[in-house]
Write a structure and sequence with these properties.
Layout lengths: L1 E10 L2 E11 L15 H9 L6 E6 L1 E2 L9
Antiparallel strand pairs: 1-2, 1-3, 3-4
Amino acid sequence: MLKVENISKSFEGHFANKDISFDISEGKTLGIIGQNGSGKTTIFRIILGFLDQDSGVIKWGKPFDKKIFLVK
């Protein structure tokens, strides 16, 4: 299960995402839709560890360190 709780990210004082929460159970699919510039890609970049969120928690069954995605 992927659980995203109260994720917020802002750039230069403007929120790309504010208090976004959702969960995806094993075997399920979630679609994220919205207008251009609404923060969809920002959410995925945060989940994948390419960006740090300003606040909130991401859990994959349990809390994890996004650094596991980094290549050394």
